[in-house]
Each structure stands twice: as C-alpha cells, then as structure tokens.
C-alpha cells in the first residue's frame, strides 16, 4: 500500500467512476479513481460513496487528504484527513475575534504572527493573546484581503532565522458582519463543557436612584452603551482573559484548567433596551450588578448554557463591579466534600450561572485583577459555599425561609466570639486537611474591633533584599496585581472547578 | 465587590469634610453585603441596608459616584495598581 498526500484540486464524474486529481495544482496533480463496479456488494458501494463525499468535502474546503492506494495503482482504497497542528475556531471575519487552536508551539517562539497566504500574497497579523492550547487575535484587521487563503502561525525562535511555522490550513476571509455568538475556544471535548460567556448587555435596568433630596425615584431601562462600541468589548474580553489566566493568582491555571474551559462571546447589536435584555442592573450611586435571574433566558436565546457569565457593560456611570454566586443544579450529580466535619457537595452542573458585571473601561485599565476577584465570588455557590469579601468585618450568617432560619456556609471567613479573643491557629479542616488561620491579615493586621478572621495566605517569592518570605495580601481582601487567594479558598475553588470542568 | 480604592478614599475625604475612614468602611461593608443578598430570601435585610446606605451617601459622601468614576476614568489612561 502507498499513501499520497495533497490537495484535491479537481474531481470529475465518468459513467461508473469518479476521477480525483490530487496535488498542489491542476497541472501537477496525480490522477486517482473511485470505480463503482456492478459486481460490488452493497457495503462496498456505500464505502465508495462515503469516500467520494469525503473527497468532495476536501475539494470544496481545500483540505489536504491522504489517499490510500496500491503501489502503481490509481484506484482509491481509502481516504483520510491528515490532522494539521492548528485549527481555526470559527470563520475569519473582519473586525471580529479570530482564534486558532494549536498543538504545541515550541518554547521560545516569540512573537507569534498569523499569516494569511495565497499563491501571490502573504499578510501577517499579530497574535494578541497566547495560551498553550489556543491563540487569539482581538480584531481581524479589515486590510486583510477577503476570499480563500491559507492561515498558518509563525514566530522566530532564538538562533533560528526561519523560526517555527505551523501547518497551513485553508480558510476564507470575509468582510463581515462579525458573529453575534462566537466560540473563542471549545474547551474540553464533552457534551457540556464548563463555559464562560462574555456578554454585551443590550440594556441596563436602573432600579434605585435617589433624587436631589435623597428621595427614591422610579427605575427605568436604558440602552447599554457597549452595543455602540464593539472595539471596547473586544478589548475588555482580552483584558479579562489576561486577568483571569495570566496574573499572579494561578487558580485557573492549576491542573491545566484553562485548557478545559470553553469561551464564548455574545455581542448582539440588534437587541433593543427591553426588560428581558437588561441583564445588568445599576445600584446607586455607581455599582453595576448582573441580573442573575435573567441570564439563563438571555443566553438561552443564543443556545448557550454557561457556568459563568461576565456582563461587560459600556456604562461609565456605573463603574464599580460586583458579582453573584452560582446556583448549582442540585438535581444532578456532584462531588461530596467535608468541611469542618460537615458533608457538602461541589455540584458538577449549573442551574443559574455565576455572574459578574464589569465595565469595559475598568477592565481596559488594568492591572487590577477585578475580574478575578469577582470570578471567585461568582464561581462559589449560594448553598454549598460562598467565597465572600474579606475587607470588612461582616460575616453572612443566614436568612429566613418562612419560619426557618437557614445558615449560610461561608468558605473563607469566620467570626470570633469577642474581638479580643485571639485568632485561632487553625481556620478549618477541608477534605481531610487542616488549614491555618491568617494571624495578621497578610501583614495589614485586623482592626481591633473586628471579630472576623481569614484563612492563611500564600507566601510570595522571597523578598530580594531581606531574604524573608513575603505573605501575599488576600485577593478577596485587597485587589492588587500581587494579591492571591489564601490556601484554603484556593483548594476549595480548585476542587469545585475540577468537579465542573471534568464532568 | 472590591473595596474602595485608597486613592478614592483620600479624594472622598478631601471632597467631604468630616467624612471618616470608618464611614467609608461602613459603606463598603453595607454594599458588599447588599450585592450578595438574594431579594427573594432577604428582602427585609436589603431594605434595612438600603436605608443606611442611602443615608450615608446622602449625608456623608454625596459625590462618591462622581469621584470614583472619575478615578476609574483616570486609571484607564494611567493604570495604577493597588486597592
């Protein structure tokens, strides 16, 4: 047997055979045939029909094929699609995101450029964001020629003038319009991958405003300016991805989680300022909040069922971000865990997605990890563990459900009986491991009237001058580029994410 | 929700004579709690918090939104990292 690899450059039908030309051009192609013989049994006929379908697909999509045939014999025995080491995710459209899944960019390849090539032209576009498994171009530039071409990734390597170049795969560049719903990366190959949606809210519900004398005024629905500024939305998605995955805090890099998450954007400029489209709400004077009860209805219109929704508002009036916890789907399977002797569950599936509302302009600003802080709230759960703010003394205790008081389970904050009591050495036992308390709030100290205390924080790299380890400030207490989660919250969230990501 | 940025704190205190760090801490605590309360579960607590927040805003720092948004807008131009 021999294998010939190349592009299907032409196909013609004869009376009982299909002629297939495989090569680099019509003039240099090699001829193969699929013959339908009267003596062929039905299953052989079906096999040949399937091969012809594959070859036709290869012809129309300009994909390479591998033809299996006997040596010196043009009769096709089998057809395969060789796997390229890159695969574009979605169509190439001017002014839209463009992402490419990639297998193994060698270390040291930097910067990375996407080349769009024809027989006559080669147009390089800088890659704006790079993960091990995929790369993102924030906005495909409109100067890129439309029509069929091939895309490949290229980058120089140290000491190698030619650098590294990926396989070339066929694409067709169009001038728009940008997609309403775009998958940036498909995540884990499963029926329900753990999904982040970055949504542009069509409208803001302003629920509570104060008049000149402090009197409450009626709420209203107003268009969200983000739908008039798609570039800002793209920039914000980029900034968020950097915050979530490339900062000091490694939560989403642990266990290679980032490679398993599916990322989707929703930007629908056709949507008007209706109540159903108001997926964020404003709280006086300047706080933006997701409207969690509307999220499933909104994203469901686009056939999405995410675990986390980031609502990226264009408002410059409501600029302070906030988040809501997830509600797990308690009717479906979960992973049990024990916290201080109580058995609880990390739900594998989501009923109401966790959510965060952030203004595009604050996420552009960086480098504050606002998005990661809000994500940690959003990824926690109403009834099986809330990750709460640590910068104030309040500890959520519970709520009344009819005549029954239901306690809230908080993962990362506890309360002493008296503010003068010493901070306990141990904070909690989670999954069989005891986690210590933070004795001095990451070096900032607890105010003397506080009863609350926190789990012990992580230690940063050794200070360069003193040589002593530096305790990082807790990300849920102090939002700064060098902040990180404490050990307990990190472990708890990591396990929770693993339960969902690997469902 | 994030705490009030230290720079915003200072600007707030300059713009509102008599405003203290304790007032801002209280505002942050109330707001942090407020945004994580489920209206269907905690309507009464939300009303109580809103009343105190509104009173704090009206009497102690009526320009909070304006000052904080201006800070965010400046940060967009000149990113700075703390808070």
Quick gist of this model?
The complex is a heterodimer of chains A (503) and B (83). Chain A contains six helices and 38 strands.
Name the descriptors:
heterodimer; A: 503 residues; alpha+beta; OB fold (Dihydrolipoamide Acetyltransferase, E2P); Collagenase (Catalytic Domain); 3 domains; 6-stranded mixed β-sheet; 38 strands; B: 83 residues; mainly alpha; 4 helices; 0% strand
Structure notes:
Chain A is elongated. In chain A, strands 7, 9, 10, 13, 14 and 15 form a six-stranded mixed beta sheet that branches. In chain A, strands 16-21-17-24-30-25 form a six-stranded mixed beta sheet, sandwiched between helices. Chain A has a five-stranded antiparallel beta sheet with strand order 3-2-1-4-5, with helices on one face. In chain A, a hairpin with a 3-residue loop joins strand 22 (about 280-285) and strand 23. The relative contact order of chain A is 0.09. Chain A has about 500 residues and is an alpha+beta fold. Chain A contains six helices and 38 strands. The model of chain A has no long low-confidence stretch (mean pLDDT about 90). Chain A starts with a strand and ends with a helix. Chain A has three domains: about 1-80, OB fold (Dihydrolipoamide Acetyltransferase, E2P) (Beta Barrel); about 90-175, Immunoglobulins (Immunoglobulin-like); about 180-335 and about 340-390 and about 490-500, Collagenase (Catalytic Domain) (3-Layer(aba) Sandwich), CATH 3.40.390. Chain B is mainly α and about 80 residues long. Chain B has one domain (about 5-75). Chain B has helices spanning about 5-15, 20-35, 45-60, 65-75. In chain B, helix 1 packs across helix 4 and helix 2 (about 20-35) packs antiparallel against helix 3. The longest helix of chain B has 17 residues, at about 45-60. Chain B is globular. In chain B, about 30% of the residues are buried.
